[in-house]
Amino acid sequence: MNKDNLTEGMLESIEEELPSVIGMIDQTGARGSSLREFRAMLAYHLGWEGDGAGPEARGKRIRPLLLLLTCAAAGGDWQRALPAAAGVELVHNFSLIHDDIQDNSPYRRGRETVWKLWGIPQAINAGDAMLALAHLGIMRLEHSTSLEVAFRAARILQLACLELTKGQHLDLAYEARRHLTLEEYWTMVTGKTAALLAACTELGALVAGVPEDCRAHSREFGLNLGLAFQAQDDLLGIWGDAALTGKSAESDLLAGKKSLPIVFALNQGGAFARRWAQGPVHADEVPALARQLEAEGARAYVQERAAVMTERALSALQKTNPQGQAGELLAALADRLLNRSG
Amino acid sequence: MNKDNLTEGMLESIEEELPSVIGMIDQTGARGSSLREFRAMLAYHLGWEGDGAGPEARGKRIRPLLLLLTCAAAGGDWQRALPAAAGVELVHNFSLIHDDIQDNSPYRRGRETVWKLWGIPQAINAGDAMLALAHLGIMRLEHSTSLEVAFRAARILQLACLELTKGQHLDLAYEARRHLTLEEYWTMVTGKTAALLAACTELGALVAGVPEDCRAHSREFGLNLGLAFQAQDDLLGIWGDAALTGKSAESDLLAGKKSLPIVFALNQGGAFARRWAQGPVHADEVPALARQLEAEGARAYVQERAAVMTERALSALQKTNPQGQAGELLAALADRLLNRSG
């Protein structure tokens, strides 16, 4: 199989595994037509049904792909890891359904969000169901690997869920605060973004049968990939092409989001911090404020942190001794995530 | 140990196990003072901290007690089942936190609800954290029993969570509907109330080492106990002393809740159904409407169903051949749940 075919094959298998996990809704207890609408909410969110369904609505499936590539690069049979791949993707989607309620976001990927279409009570519950299915999905590793691997994997995913809620708590709490230390920012991002990516690479190594001490390198790879990715994302939120044009959907300055460059500048206490304290930013201020942030060293700081964490991620990846095409694809995926243009 | 001491001992052990599970928040990833408020939300909801904390605020811990008694009555060491007992209690409390948001309820057990105190976004997230801790809690069976039992138990609890969300979906969907069949009502209640009680008794038997085919009797006991309990609860919601005095918090007629007697009468299509279709019930109508429901056979129907399911529950319990003091206490607990006065 050539490289493109390997990635394509993995993505196709993920798209087959996911509906099979969602189908567990009908396998026990209540079933039938009364639950058609319930299943439809989950299928809509996953981009399979409803207005705007299609590849664009499904997202990039980065997390399951990262998991399967890590497994294959560690010499494992990636097809056995599919239940875990479905599990991480469904945990990610559970968090998106609840995030959209918490952030009062009416749109995601150009489509109305679940709460906008079905109301907040049903959307909270749809997220809860997606989460139960994620864990039931990963437990199917019992059949493709062993009961012990399935148990360890389920626990790794559950710990990642706990970290997600800790990160989310801090993110929500920080909205109401004026001041935030850089350490607080990193703690939040470790939970909210990096914990699930760390679980992906750890799970890939676990299914491949990598011994526990070596799995730590895989985990380290995913964790730092997540941190570097978030720093990069925060850079784009100020200096990406879309952000600089001043569209509110793209600029963290307009959204009032406490992203890394902004937290850095607020801690500097200079001109940017004084302007920020005066209230919401207007669209025509965006280019000048971006220049001000840069002048105060925010861009250089974030670039430096992103570079350090990218270096840590790639160094950890090398320690896992990635093999074959999957190993090359894994490095390429990391590169794609970390060197995006605006 | 005499009977009272056995129940007391179990309840004390449950109250020790729960904080130890909640403490897992600080064991991995982010920790420290930034998460003090997060832990405080969970401790508040569980009745340990904040205004009105104390035994009254904690609930009766029926589910973990049912689990431990089932384990002991099946000849098992109930102390080994404590991680499972904590798991079911935390799943129950996760569902309460989200229910209170979904039902827009500002009070529970005389105290403000989590969303009322911390807002909806943080309350959704606190429920999500409670759920992750529930599952991490039950996985600690790995240490008190075996990896296999821990895996099976985690899956049973996860399946119960899926059933909970299915029941909750139907409950929310039914609010907006005029008509509801009795079958639809029972499907909803099976998910929303009975599935977790069935998991409690199944888990107790699992930890005791009961073979799989015999565990079905334990599960059947919990399932029918849950259904009978709900029918009984719905009776009290119309004909209980508190409901008949017409206090809105106690009467399902005033709350407009589609409980079993009401669903029965709506399907009869008589005078009650015609009145119900005309809009909200006023407090001074409550006694007459309760009499009308009774005249149309709703009370007799619900009493008959409660009796049938109580019979099924007790028959299934007998098949498990319950032993010793725990066996007697289990029958007494079922009796207490099913023969409550208003």
Any overview of this molecule?
Two copies of one chain form a homodimer. By secondary structure, chain A is an all-alpha fold. Chain A has a single domain, classed as Farnesyl Diphosphate Synthase (Orthogonal Bundle), CATH 1.10.600. In chain A, 73% of the residues lie in helices and 1% in strands. Chain A contains 18 helices and two strands. The first copy, chain A, has a two-stranded antiparallel ribbon with strand order 1-2. In chain A, a hairpin with a 2-residue loop joins strand 1 (107-108) and strand 2 (111-112). In chain A, helix 5 runs antiparallel to helix 10, helix 9 runs antiparallel to helix 10 and helix 10 (182-208) packs across helix 11. The mean pLDDT of chain A is 93. Chains A and B meet through helix 5, helix 7, helix 9 and helix 10 of A and helix 5, helix 7, helix 9 and helix 10 of B.
In terms of topology, how is this protein built?
The structure is a homodimer of 342-residue chains.
Chain A: H1 3-22, H2 36-45, H3 55-58, H4 62-73, H5 82-102, E1 107-108, E2 111-112, H6 114-118, H7 120-138, H8 141-144, H9 147-175, H10 182-208, H11 212-239, H12 241-244, H13 252-255, H14 260-268, H15 271-277, H16 286-295, H17 298-319, H18 324-338
Antiparallel strand pairs in A: 1-2
Which features characterize this protein?
homodimer; about 350 residues; mainly alpha; Farnesyl Diphosphate Synthase; two-stranded antiparallel sheet; 18 helices; 2 strands; globular
Structural class of chain A: mainly alpha
How much helix is in the residues of chain A? over 70%
Overall CATH class of chain A: Mainly Alpha
- Give, in order, the helices and strands of chain A: HHHHHEEHHHHHHHHHHHHH
| Structure summary, number of beta strands of chain A | 2
CATH architecture of chain A: Orthogonal Bundle
What CATH calls the topology of chain A is: Farnesyl Diphosphate Synthase
Looking at CATH, the homologous superfamily of chain A is Farnesyl Diphosphate Synthase
Cα Rg of chain A: 21 Å
Overall form of chain A: globular
How far is the N terminus from the C terminus of chain A?
32 Å
Question: Which residues of chain A sit in consecutive blocks of at least 5 with pLDDT less than 50?
Answer: none
Largest chain-chain contact?
A: A-B, 54 and 54 residues
The overall pLDDT average of chain A reads: 93
Count of runs of 4 or more consecutive helical residues of chain A: 18
Query: How many independent structural domains of chain A?
Result: 1
Oligomer: homodimer
Task: Report the sheet-strand fraction of chain A.
Answer: under 5%
Describe the sheet with the most strands of chain A.
Answer: 2 strands, antiparallel
Strand order of the largest sheet of chain A: 1-2
